[in-house]
Amino acid sequence: MRFVIRIRPRLAGIFLIVIGALASSSAYSAEKGSANERVLATQVGDATFYGPSFEGRKTASGRIFDGSQAIAAHRTYRFGTLVRVTNLQNKRSVNVVIVDRGPFGKNQHEGAIIDLSPSAAKKIGIIERGQARVKVEVLTWGDGKSRNE
Q1: Taking the CB of residue 43, how many other CB atoms lie within 10 A of it?
Q2: Widest distance between CA atoms in the chain
Q3: Topology (CATH level 3) of domain 41-140
Q4: What is the mean pLDDT of the segment spanning 10-32?
Q5: Helix (H), strand (E) at residue 46
Q6: Core-most of 110, 113, 143, 145, by most CB within 10 Å?
Q7: Distance between CA atoms of 73 and 96, rounded to whole angstroms?
Q8: Which sequence spans correspond to the domains of the chain?
Q9: Which residues contact 79 (CB under 8 A, 6 or more apart)?
Q10: How do residues 66-106 score in pLDDT, each as one tens digit?
Q11: What is the rounded (10 degree) CA torsion for 19, 24, 29, 32?
Q12: What's the pLDDT tens digit per position in 128-146?
């Protein structure tokens, strides 16, 4: 016995549109993000990254710093805020969570608006130069609460 399913071209097109819509509405991934996410705030400035001396130390939010995680420091954004950082030179982006305060000192005076973990800095290609011009886009605001994670 042989089954043959015939789909009319118009129905096939509708079917593909529906499947595409379902696929694009999948749950948000903190790692990848989506190009059409709603941006709540934007800043442009320089990004720097944490040096190795911060590894294992407590951040302002109470979280222990782990340079392999996608985390960052910002002077004013609430803890837990998710931001997309885009290197304006090479257009590479990374999503990070704000867990600390900074940059301060020399980096702040040189125009830095965000300090990235080494793994986040590597993803957008600023490890070699140490600093890069970036766009910081807020994707979701954090609750601002300190926590040990």
Answers
A1: 16
A2: 78
A3: Barwin-like endoglucanases (2.40.40)
A4: 37
A5: strand 41-49
A6: 113
A7: 9
A8: 41-140
A9: 60, 61, 98, 99, 142, 143, 144, 145, 146, 147
A10: 999 999 999 999 999 999 999 999 999 999 999 999 998 76
A11: 120
A12: 888 999 999 999 999 887 6
How far is it, in rounded angstroms, from Cα 49 to Cα 84?
Answer: 15
CA distances from 125 to 1, 31, 131 (A): 59, 16, 10
Q: How far apart are CA 111 and CA 48, in angstroms?
A: 10
Residue length, the chain?
Answer: 149
CA distance 116 to 120: 6
- Measured distance between the N- and C-terminal CA atoms of the chain, rounded to whole angstroms: 60
Tell me the two tokens of residue 117. Answer: 């973990």
* Beta-carbon count within 10 A of 67 CB: 19
Locus of tokens 């951040």: 59
Q: Is 43 helix (H, G, I), strand (E, B) or coil?
A: strand
What is the CA 47 to chain-centroid distance, rounded? 13
Q: Facing residues of 85 across strands? A: 94, 136
Q: For the whole model, what pTM was predicted?
A: 0.72
The token duo for 49 is 């990254």
- Produce one character per residue of 90-114: b if its CB has 16 or more CB atoms within 10 Å, e if not: eeebbbbbbbbbbbeeebbeeebbb
The tokens 């720097």 sit on which residue? 48
